[in-house]
Amino acid sequence: MSFGMLVDGKWNSHWTEHDSNGNFLRMNTKFSNTINYITENDRGRYYLYVSYGCPWAHRVIMVYELLKLDQFVKLIIVEPHISDDGWYFTGEYPDIRYHMHYLRELYLRSDNQYTGRVTVPVLWDSRDEVIVNNESSDIIKILNSQFNEFSTSHIDLFPVGDYAAINNQITYYYHAINNACYRTGFAKSQHVYELEVRSLFIELEALDCKLSDREYLLNDQLSGVDISLLPALLRFDIAYYGVFKCNLKMLKDFRNIERYKNRLLENPAIMKTFNVGHIKSLYYKIPGLNPNAIIPSGPSDGG
Ligand SMILES: N[C@@H](CCC(=O)N[C@@H](CS)C(=O)NCC(=O)O)C(=O)O
Q: What are the residues whose beta carbons fall under 8 Å from the beta carbon of 247, sequence distance 6 or more?
């Protein structure tokens, strides 16, 4: 398994993120700015480059839809496949801003000596031609706080009083579940895989217990914690179970998690973001994990 990355502004098509024991190590993202003040004049200035397949971008798309920001920020979707040249655009999924072929061109437009992965999501400032931020956990907070004034729904996913608790739980579930699925799937030794898959399922059991008497993960309202965890749950049976071998059980066999997931999907703004075809296309075409890139017919609805 290898993806490309930029090194001093040049594309390097083989790069893996593993230590010598076969553990998957995710590289930190590089653009970590924020936006301090937005006015009506900034309508159309910002773009979000995302993939419906990517779970980190999925967080951002959910916040975008929940806040109804489509009149203020534009969404640009990449083709649901990471090629040897990284994320790319096609006639069906064009870059409506610059008509680029590859997402890496956007990174180079921001920093022509960039070294790092070319990932989605990206929050792009088209006035200053820079990437503001490419870390999902930051972008969802920026949308929630800075863009909320231009939202017609005014949902607050990070209420001030719960801010620290929400961040703590996002970090907890990132290690326990979101990224644990990746550590399992990208393990390069039997030993690492077995350790990872077991600890992942211990965490899923704990989550199932926790959800036995509640609708949301924190208090009794939808928050950034639910939005951050949900993309992993939505990919579990349709992709992680097969491609990442997270297969001690299917997620639908965890009764409370399944109920929680389906209840969140009843929200039309969330349902609109769940694209089974893009998820399967992305994961089943990951180089090395599924050599013939056959996309399975089932399950079709994540259940
Ligand atoms: N920490 C980042 C991770 C983003 C990320 O890894 N995105 C993947 C897609 S799921 C990506 O774009 N990978 C392309 C690559 O690594 O070349 C975030 O949460 O935004």
A: 197, 241
